[in-house]
C-alpha cells in the first residue's frame, strides 16, 4: 500500500484470537469473539483478523517515541467484555491521530480468561510481570459484588498500583481497588446499582453515586460499563489535549463529554418489591399516581401506621426516606413523559412537580441536565 507524500505510515495493531478457539466462531457472534486484544507481534497461538493503527513510521523508519505510554488492563474470569473493549478502542483510535499507546492485557496467572458473555479473551502476561505501566485499568464484573474477591487478584492489583503513574477502575472494578485499600480516604464511584453497597461496605470511601467518573489524585474510578469509554477519553485528553481527543470521539461516534450523571441512564427505582404488605401498598399508591398528595402523613394513613413507623419501615426495607422515594418516582415519571415527547410544563404537572421551575431545579440537582436538554438528547420519541 502506498502512502501520500508527507503523511506518516502506520504499523498495525492486531485483534487476535487463539487458534484453538475456532469452535467459538460457530457459537458466538464474530464481534464478541474478536473484540480487542492489542498486542505487539503475532504469537504462534494467535492470528490477526483486522488492523488498527499502532506505531508511526516516517520514511520507512521507526520514529523515536519518547511519549510512548503502556496501558495495562487487568482482567479475570467473568470480567465485563465492554469494560475492556470500550477503553481499548479509545486508546487504539488515539494512535491513529498521533498518540502512541501500547496496550497489554494482564491477569493474575497470565492465562486467558472467560468474559461475561462466555467468550475466551486472550491475555498477554501475568500482572506480576508488569515492571512499570503508565496507566493501569482494572475491569469490572458481576462476581465482584456482594461476594469475596479473589485475594490473589486483590494483592496483585495492590502491588501493581505502586508501579504505575495512574490507576483506574471501570464499573465494579472499584470494588477491587476498595478491597485492596487503595481508596481509603478518597472519592470514588461505581455502577449506580452498586453505589450504595460500596458505601456501606467501605465506610472510608466517599462514594459519588451519580458521577460518570471521579478523579482523586492519581486514582480514577468510573461508573457502569460504558462509562469506561468516557474515562478513557478523559485520560487521552490529559495526555494529548482536546484537539486529538475530539478527533477520537468524532471517529468513534461518542460524546466527548456527556451532559449529566449516570442516573439519567438508569431506572431510579431499582429496589425489590417491599416484603411488608403495608409498605407495598404505599409504594404502589405512589407509583400509580405520582402527582397525588404523598406527604408522610397521607402515606401513613395508607399504611395504617404512624409517621414514625412508616419512616422506619422505609429506611429498613428500601434504605431511603418516604420523601426521597416519592421524589425518585416523580423523576422517573418525568423522564418517561419527556421521552414520550411531552412538553416540560405538562410533564411538571403530570409528574407531580407543579411548575416547570421546580422540575428544572430537581432535574439539574439529580440528573445534571435541564428537562429540555434531557428531552432533546435522551428521549426516544420523535422531537416536537
Q: Based on helices, strands and strand pairing, what is the structural class?
A: alpha/beta
| Sheet with the most strands: spatial strand order | 9-6-5-10-11-15-14
CATH class of the largest domain: Alpha Beta
CATH superfamily of the largest domain: Class I glutamine amidotransferase (GATase) domain
Gyration radius (Cα, Å) is 24 Å
CATH level-3 fold name of the largest domain: Rossmann fold
User: What is the ordering of alpha helices and beta strands?
Assistant: EHHEEEEHEEEEEHEHEHEEEHHHHHHHHH
| CA-CA gap between termini | 49 Å
The CATH architecture of the largest domain would be 3-Layer(aba) Sandwich
Regions with pLDDT < 50 over 5+ consecutive residues? Answer: 1-64, 266-270, 379-384
Organism: Mycolicibacterium smegmatis (strain MKD8) (Mycobacterium smegmatis)
Keywords: DNA-binding, Transcription, Transcription regulation
Protein name: Transcriptional regulator, AraC family protein
GO molecular function: DNA-binding transcription factor activity; sequence-specific DNA binding
Question: Features of this protein?
Answer:
disordered N terminus, globular, 7-stranded mixed beta sheet, 15 helices, transcription, alpha/beta, 384 residues, DNA-binding, INH-QAR, 39% helix, Rossmann fold, Transcriptional regulator, AraC family protein, Arc Repressor Mutant, subunit A, DNA-binding transcription factor activity, 4-stranded antiparallel beta sheet
Briefly summarize what is shown:
By secondary structure, this protein is α/β, with parallel strands linked by helices. It has 15 helices and 15 strands. The strands form four sheets. A seven-stranded mixed β-sheet has the order 9-6-5-10-11-15-14, with helices on both faces. The chain has a four-stranded antiparallel β-sheet with strand order 2-1-3-4, with helices on one face.
Amino acid at each position: 500500500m502506498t502512502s501520500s507524500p508527507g503523511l506518516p505510515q502506520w504499523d498495525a495493531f492486531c485483534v487476535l484470537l487463539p487458534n484453538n478457539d475456532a469452535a467459538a466462531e460457530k457459537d458466538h457472534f464474530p464481534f464478541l469473539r474478536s473484540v480487542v486484544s492489542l498486542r505487539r507481534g503475532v504469537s504462534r497461538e494467535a492470528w490477526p483478523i483486522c488492523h488498527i493503527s499502532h506505531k508511526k513510521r516516517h520514511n520507512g523508519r521507526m520514529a523515536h517515541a519518547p511519549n510512548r505510554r503502556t496501558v495495562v488492563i487487568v482482567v479475570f474470569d467473568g470480567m465485563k467484555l465492554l469494560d475492556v473493549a470500550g477503553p481499548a478502542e479509545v486508546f487504539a483510535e488515539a494512535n491513529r491521530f498521533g498518540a502512541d499507546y501500547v496496550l497489554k492485557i494482564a491477569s493474575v496467572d497470565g492465562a486467558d480468561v472467560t468474559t461475561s458473555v462466555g467468550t475466551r479473551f486472550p491475555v498477554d502476561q501475568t500482572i506480576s510481570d508488569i515492571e512499570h505501566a503508565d496507566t493501569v485499568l482494572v475491569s469490572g464484573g458481576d462476581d465482584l459484588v456482594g461476594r469475596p474477591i479473589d485475594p490473589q487478584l486483590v494483592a496483585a492489583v495492590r502491588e501493581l498500583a505502586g508501579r504505575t503513574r495512574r490507576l483506574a477502575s471501570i464499573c465494579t472494578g472499584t470494588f477491587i481497588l476498595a478491597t485492596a485499600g487503595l481508596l481509603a480516604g478518597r472519592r470514588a464511584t461505581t455502577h449506580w446499582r452498586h453505589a450504595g453497597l460500596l458505601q456501606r461496605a467501605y465506610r472510608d470511601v466517599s462514594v459519588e453515586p451519580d458521577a460518570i467518573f471521579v478523579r482523586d489524585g492519581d486514582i480514577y474510578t468510573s461508573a457502569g460499563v460504558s462509562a469506561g469509554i468516557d474515562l478513557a477519553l478523559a485520560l487521552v485528553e490529559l495526555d494529548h489535549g482536546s484537539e486529538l481527543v475530539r478527533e477520537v470521539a468524532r471517529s468513534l461516534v461518542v460524546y466527548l463529554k456527556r451532559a449529566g450523571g449516570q442516573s439519567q441512564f438508569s431506572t431510579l427505582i431499582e429496589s425489590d418489591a417491599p416484603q411488608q404488605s403495608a409498605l407495598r401498598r404505599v409504594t404502589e399508591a405512589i407509583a400509580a399516581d405520582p402527582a397525588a398528595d404523598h406527604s408522610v402523613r397521607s402515606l401513613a394513613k395508607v399504611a395504617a401506621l404512624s409517621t414514625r413507623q412508616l419512616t422506619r419501615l422505609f429506611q429498613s426495607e428500601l434504605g431511603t426516606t418516604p420523601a426521597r422515594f416519592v421524589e425518585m418516582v416523580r423523576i422517573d415519571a418525568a423522564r418517561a413523559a419527556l421521552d414520550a415527547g411531552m412538553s416540560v410544563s405538562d410533564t411538571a404537572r403530570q409528574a407531580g412537580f407543579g411548575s416547570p421551575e421546580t422540575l428544572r431545579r430537581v432535574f439539574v440537582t439529580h440528573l445534571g441536565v435541564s428537562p429540555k436538554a434531557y428531552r432533546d438528547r435522551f428521549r426516544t420519541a420523535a422531537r416536537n
